[in-house]
Amino acid sequence: MAEPPLRHLDHLYVVERAADQEFTRGGQGNAEIRPVEHRAHGLAMRGQLHEALAAGDERRRGVSVDIEELQALGTIIVLEGAKATYPLKVESLDRLSSHRTTARRPMWLLLSVQPATETEPERATVWVSDAYRSRFLQLFEDYLTRFTTSAAPEKWTTPEGNPAHQALIANIGRIRQAVLMDLWTSEGEPPTHGRHWWELWLDTSQPALEVFDAFAAAHRLRTVPRAVSFRDRHVVWIEATWDQLQVLPFTPVPVAEVRRPEFVDTVEDLLANEQDEYVQDLADRVSPADPDTAPVVCHLDSGVFRGHVLLRDSLDPADVHTVIGTSGGDVDGHGTTMAGLALYGDLDPLLTGNEKVALEHRLESVRMRPGRGEPHLDPLDFGTATAEAVALPEITAARARVFCLPLSARPDSPGEPTLWSSTVDALAAGTDIVREGRQLRLLSGPDPAAARLILVAAGNVDSYQLAHRDESDTSAIEDPAQAWNALTVSAFTDLDEEPTDPTYDGWSPLARAGELSPHSRTSLLFAGRSWPIKPDICMEGGNVLTDGHTGFEDKHPLLSLRSTGTANDLAVTSANATSAATAQASRLAAIAMARYPAYWPETVRGLLTHAAEWTPPMRREIEHQQGKGARLRLLRRYGWGVPTEETVLHSSQQAVTMVSQDEFVPFDGPDYRMRRFRLHPLPWPRDALDSIGDDEVRLRVTLSYFVEPSPSRRGWRRRYTYASHGLRFDLQGSLESQQEFVRRVNRDAQRDEEGASRTASTSDRWLVGPQQRHLGSLHQDEWTGTGHELAASGTLAVYPVGGWWKNNGRADRTSLPVRYGLIVSLRSRRQDIDLYTPIANQLRIPTTITAR
Fold first, then answer.
1. Best CA proximity match to 380, nearest among 411, 415, 413
2. DSSP string, 316-372
3. What is the pTM of this model?
């Protein structure tokens, strides 16, 4: 059953959506008007126009294409300028009908303009509709009427006393019939001998693609079965001789230009001057976020080129740092590309759109990669470098920030904590760190007020194979992405289009839409150990082309994302793999911080995971696995799926997200015993759930907290010796009283401490189950059952288990509070049920229960 559409509601509160803005274009200015003898010039232009239209009619009658779809709809003519100092008034050469009761149709369209050269005048190629030919001719008649009638002369003149349409007609030097060469807009001459691929740019205001397909079929010409669409043009490709295309201007195929094939799959592949126009247009539509209040994404990468027009207003010079050398500028382009994705996401839809872009977050950068001639970091020093890189922006400004770390290195033993991953964990927990040889010295206990949200890339595979999932499954997530407190981001892909470039004829995308990206690593090699489930989420990371044998192309623009480049301040480039996925996830985290500024870093981490959904291929694979152990293996491949901006920011009446933030002291006293756990009464709308009856309802629970790491290698094989503590959650069973539930939680907490199996109770309703989900410091699971069953399950428990704080008897950690974000969502497929309103009316504060 399809999921109901989401409404734009804040989690537990209603929000208003911003209104759409229409794209406005600037004026063309007042062109210089050529002085002419008006009557003589008008008669000459009218005569040439009649001749051009008549010649077009004659050519069309000679087109022997015996199909109804290719009946002529218009004529293409060329207006030539007289002198470069008197430009054509091209804004008058686009006109739509003024029908109020029907869709507006094009009367005449400006197809292209060729600027004047030393030997050629300016040329405007114009398509004139047969249905409105008389209206176009009337422009010239109106111009002449001023000199051929004495009746009401004010009707035929401008307020200045000039002839009507003078600015258009006076600057025309010649009107003639169009030929195919007039549509050629590439540099140099077209190849007129032999068969070649041609790139046709079609106008989008008319039925273009169907007519083009009919034309190609009628002439038995080979085409690329795909089109790229921009704001006002479709781009298609056809293989033909020049002579076979000569008929195009006299058919209804709305061809605006013929070009030498550049195989334009993305804006990135446009010619430089065309690309620049799109980038500048986007820059003009962007409103940067407030530098004093907005959260930031801080990149720990190769630096950022802040001169880029799309970045400079969102990255202050004081926020560009380095831990290597003296400059924070980008040394290899990677950091700038990731910064563009973290600020905007994929640029393609923004570049080809026309809406205003109001940013809600900003950027910071710390360079951690050496440039040419600079000493490279020893891998063991990445922990110290990361700690220093985190400290630099925090010293500069106190603000909400997300740290984006796309760097990675090969660990000695997959999944085990390293110096680098332990540093990430300690930094996230709010601990200050220095390195002492191969150890880390913690200068303070963890400070929840200084907690940090750090997103880390899962790392990329070393090679590509046709069995790409096998390659990913045997390529372990790289250091420091195994960090417990980090949000680890892997890559999936929805990009599965085949390229238009005949060079790649017969090549195809390696992964299908919705699958794991062939670039990405997994944590399946962690299986059987107590290391965390990684990745946590996936984001778009692009695909790989293959010839089906040993050929692989991993950087094709069509199967990649678009972002900011470093070639110049308007450059656009491709981005892919897990670095690109992490940058996009960082953007989601930052806009979540902007929307919900009271959320802790732990909570935002949990929210992104909670908002993730498996793609249909992922979900089918996971749900078809019968055993929870098998499902855990698939979680180590996909994490919890793909979050979107919609699901991160909004609830709906049928999909309600509840966020709680809590802090309590679980252990105290000289014996450091577990003393307390927490009960969260769930504000179920019992009447609404009972009305769902036996229909399915889904409960998703996410528990996110940060641990203090113990980075020494001693004892990692022992249970609970890397993390300071652990937390667990469980749901009251539908047949349990609250007293029975409290007793079961006490019992399960003790068994968890001893490493024994827990009681089963409600675990059969969980997708992963308590034996599998409680790894790391981010726990999530889905409960699925009937409305009646969930209506009777009214309480959620969060309880502690001991780690090295308890096992080591650390007196300085006695009575330290721990905090967590608890996120619970309820989803029904019944669109006639309002869960949101009664939940909002029944919110309650969690109750502290003393353990016995």
1. 411
2. -GGGEEESSSS--S-SSSHHHHHHHHHHHS-SHHHHT--S-EE---EEEEEE-S--T
3. 0.82
